[in-house]
Amino acid sequence: MKRKVLAWCVCVIAMMAATPAFAEQVLVAVAANFIPPFREIALEFEKSTGHQLQVAGGSSGNFYSQIKNGAPFDVFFSADRERPKLLEDEGLGVKDSRFTYAIGRLVLWSPNTDFVKGEETLRSKHYKRLAMANPKTAPYGVAAIQAMQKLELWEGLQPHIVMGESLGQTMGFIESGNAQLGFVALSQVLDPKIKGKGSRWDVPTNLHEPIRQDMILLAKAKDNQAAKALMEFIGGPQAKKIIERYGYELK
C-alpha cells in the first residue's frame, strides 16, 4: 500500500513539474495583418508557458471601439500607434506597457501570375475592382491612399475601389475574384497558404508613412500574469524570428 501511495505521489509531482503553475488564459485582439505570424507565435507561447490564448482578428479601428465599449480583451495588437496611445491616455491601457512590436509593409497583390508588375499596373486600369482596407478602421488603408496620392492616382482610381472593413476582408475580396488585385499586408502574402502564388509589388516605403504597429496591455489584465508573459514573449528572440520571417521590420 505504501508503495502504491509513493508511486502516486511521484506521478503527481511529475505532472506538476511538467505543467506551469497558475496557467491562465489571455484574450487577445489582433489586427488582421498580424494574424498569419501570430498563429505561429501563439503555438510557441503556449508550448513554452502553458498559458492559453484566445485570439480574435479584425480591424484596429473596430477593436478600439469594442474595447472602449467594454470588450473583455487583455492584450491589443494594433496596426497603428494611435489607437493604443488613445487607450493608454483614456485609462483603458496600462501606462508604459505600450511598445512597437513590428513595422508593416504594404503590397499590391493579385492571385493571377504576372498580373502585377509595379505601379504601371495601377496606371493601366486593366481591372474592374481594386481592393483596399477602409482607412477609417484599418491603418493599411491609410497607407494605400497615401501611396496612390503620391503617385497622383487616387482621384482617377476611386471608381475602381472596393473597401473591406479589415485586411482579412480585403484579402477575401481578392481571393474570391470580387477584385482582381488589391493592397494588403506583406505578411498576408507570405502566409504559407498563399506564399508563392500570384504576383505582387512591394510598395516603396517612401510612398506612405511608416506603418508602426503598437501593442498594449489593457487595464483589465494589469494583474494577469499570462498577459504580461505574452508581452514579454513578443519582445523575445522566438517571436522576433517569426515576425521578421513574415516581412515585418523590427524597431
- How many strands appear in the DSSP assignment? 10
**Termini separation (Å)?**
61 Å
The neighbouring-strand order within the major sheet is: 2-1-3-10-4
Which consecutive residue ranges, at least 5 long each, have pLDDT under 50? 1-20
How much is the radius of gyration in Å? 21 Å
CATH superfamily of the largest domain: Periplasmic binding protein-like II
CATH class wording of the largest domain: Alpha Beta
Number of helices: 11
CATH topology of the largest domain: D-Maltodextrin-Binding Protein, domain 2
Report the major sheet: 5 strands, mixed
Domains counted in the coordinates: how many?
A: 2
Share of helix, binned:
40-55%
Q: What fraction of residues sit in β-strands?
A: 15-25%
The shape, in one word, is: globular
Structural class: alpha/beta
CATH architecture of the largest domain: 3-Layer(aba) Sandwich
Characterise this structure.
- It is a single chain.
- The relative contact order is 0.21.
- The strands form two sheets. The protein has a five-stranded mixed β-sheet with strand order 2-1-3-10-4, sandwiched between helices. A five-stranded mixed β-sheet has the order 7-6-8-5-9.
- Helix 2 runs antiparallel to helix 11.
- The protein has 251 residues and is α/β, with parallel strands linked by helices.
- Helix 2 links the parallel strand 1 and strand 2.
- It has two domains: 135 residues, 3-Layer(aba) Sandwich (D-Maltodextrin-Binding Protein, domain 2); 103 residues, 3-Layer(aba) Sandwich (D-Maltodextrin-Binding Protein, domain 2).
